[in-house]
Amino acid sequence: MKLQNSEIPYSYQDLFQRGRPMVYTGRQLDNIAFPLGGIGTGCISFGGWGQFRDAEIWNLPNKGEPLPYAWFTLNARTTDGPSVTKLLQGPVGSSDFTGSGSGVDRRNGAGLPHFAEAEFVGRFPYAELRLRDPQVPLEVTVEAYNPFIPGNADDSGLPAAMFTIALKNGGNESVKAVLYANCPNLAGYPEAKGGRTEYVERDGAYGLVMSTTRHEPESPRYGSMALVSPLRPCKVLANWRRGTWFDSLHDFWDQAKEGELRDERGATVNEDGFDVGSLAFEMEIPAGETRQVPIWYVWHTPNFRKEWEKGEDKPIWRNYYATLHADAGAVAGYLGQHHQRLEEETRLFADSLFASTLPTPVMDAVTSQLSILKSTTCLRLEDGTFYGYEGCSTKGGCCEGTCTHVWNYAQALPYLFPALERTVRDAEFTICLGEDGHMTFRLPLPIGRKPDGTFHAATDGQLGCVMKVYREWLIHGDDAWLAGHWPRVKKALEYAWQQWDKDKDGCMEGVQHNTYDIEFHGPNTMLGTFYLGALRAAEEMAMQLDDLPAAEEYRRLFEQGQALYDALLFNGDYYVQDVRRGEDCDKQGCHGATCTPSDTRFPENPAYQYGDGCLSDQLIGQWYGRMLRLGDFLDADNMRQTLTSIFANNWKASMREHANPQRIYALNDEAGLLLCTWPRGNRPGLPFVYSDEVWCGIEYQVASHLIFEGFVEEGLAIVKGVRDRHDGSRRNPWNEFECGNHYARSLASYALLLAVSDFFYSAPAQSLSFSPKVYKENFACFFSVDSGWGMLRQKAFEDEGYKVQVRMLRGKLTLANLQVGLRATEPMISLRDSHIDYEAFPTEVGMVLRLASTVTIEAGETLEIIM
Known about the structure:
By secondary structure, this protein is α+β, with helices and mostly antiparallel strands. It contains 18 helices and 40 strands. The chain has a ten-stranded antiparallel β-sheet. Strands 31, 32, 33, 34, 35, 36, 37, 38, 39 and 40 form a ten-stranded mixed β-sheet that branches. A five-stranded antiparallel β-sheet has the order 6-5-11-17-15, with no helix packed on it.
């Protein structure tokens, strides 16, 4: 099907170049902040020129605040050459020049000598800063990461930022070097006066452990920090010189530039301010050799206070990581014992992910936005439940409660950490669901508190939760878990018959609250496809649980609704909204006064609708349907036409002529996908409140749906437009914001990996399928499910044959069926050098191979198909 519009201003090379780590230089370094921390622990961000920015380790966002005086310093000299001392940082970025009224912020070391050149390489979960300077006789690389291992949420939730400094001597003379690492004792922040610092050696970790003496263990300010290494430091300074004005930094620098450091390891307490401590590592590096120094920053702020609660008596609970590790010293000891394994497993994940032959825009989008899981957007509650804001403002969370309709878009967590995602479903269906089936779309805290009526039901969020229960069951295959939730899942779905589809005809006509923070009045396919999708998912779950009456009823309603939505709303190009002013406008299900005004142009209609508009989200439920293999919810040809219309009308290669009186996330020459346009006119006088905006998460949703349907170039164009807006020179590549930083909706980017590989796995059916949309002659892609993770490969032979491989790297995978996007007369399947018998069945795009008996692929093993 040919697109109606649009010229794509990107070359084939721009869109289809095989993905590789992104390298940032020059002005692209200005806005980089790479989050380092565990899931639910807060983070420290590694800046583009090497500074530690945005210290967010005290249970609150803290944008703009560095970890003061924390940096690495190198003193190096050859036998005959002069001594040179520089911070392991590149030139200070232009965005930092203004500083405050007292000049550029010196707490990041901006006033000290830096390396002349820097480039930053993003390879999530690793970041690499490469430093060069003609005055320095060493090439320096600072690699930063913290453990991120699919399926291992606890080790991926360690409160630490881990650095490895590599010093390479490419010259002809031996180099003597001293490397310094600093850390402030800000335990108790922002009331950090009264801190104890002492040198410790614990379980293979050596360095400084810092704690607060001012705050009691029950206080939300109570906590500890550590600066440690698996190498013994040669010298330790527990506290810099205490003085006035700039004495302490002067004193440190005077020592560092001489390659010296006072060795004062005894415990010290500062009651009047906070101390800064340093470790020094001395070494000689022969010509042609490299030395590596690992250095770890650790934090432990155990008591989380619900700062957004009104009143003075704010609830407090313990962070999950604090139930596993007593303090920062204990975390340091755990790292000392396990750092080699943690690094090996994290490296294996990163190497596998970047071995995927995804187009560069897709690789960039998928990997960069996984960083949201490390940001302050995400928490783990005391019992291990995963919890998320929508995003974070500079000093607080934004829109709490793992909002059902925003987290609908997020696809990374359920595949990479399925057990964590199931904790969200458990909370939603046991805490947020009322006896009548009404589900509040935000989870109240502390965990266990019942909803008080503050948050009503969101149609897309609630019906999306039904589909997500089905998704979680497919990924892990636990029938007992599904059966335990089934009565509540039915109740949540059938609430639609009380509120949104009162005549029970499969088409929702009522007032439908949604992710745009308003109500849609009357039938529309954005929420309608969620309804149809929930009916289909529930039908499948009912069949599995032998609830045949329910399955039959859901199928009947699905078929009725499918016909009604197509007949009522398709205008030949896309699906519109049939706007109706509901009788229950001011009753339950209506979001206060936002839907009571009349539209200024069409006064017979309520305000904040889209009517004849082309809505980017109009097929979002079908997007879920593609990922979950639930079939077509609407007429297949109509949906394909609709997708082409969304791209043709809503994607803009430039925003220069776009008028947007709302929030601005794209402008000037930037490309983006508008939430809605009115190509046939009849734009409401007061359209829904975000209609003229550009949201990254919706862009990823539409892009991956286009790719699923074969419109690969169009999908990639959308993705490239998003990532070009986040190139470091304009915005941080690791922070796509909407209503707050690190906005959860952008985790929809993981669906791009699923779409490009056309990957699907059903644990209950023990069935895996994939059919690459790109590079079909030589394709590789990472995959992850509950039982393990590995790589999929498809490669052509010179004699026109193909080799398809499923390789497990961690865990295991049990298979009874394989579906591939290729056909062959007599494929050969083998595992552990043994031939596997099968039956073959052709499909529209390939074939299904039904194995004679199930096989289990263990870690390190490869199932191979020669076609």
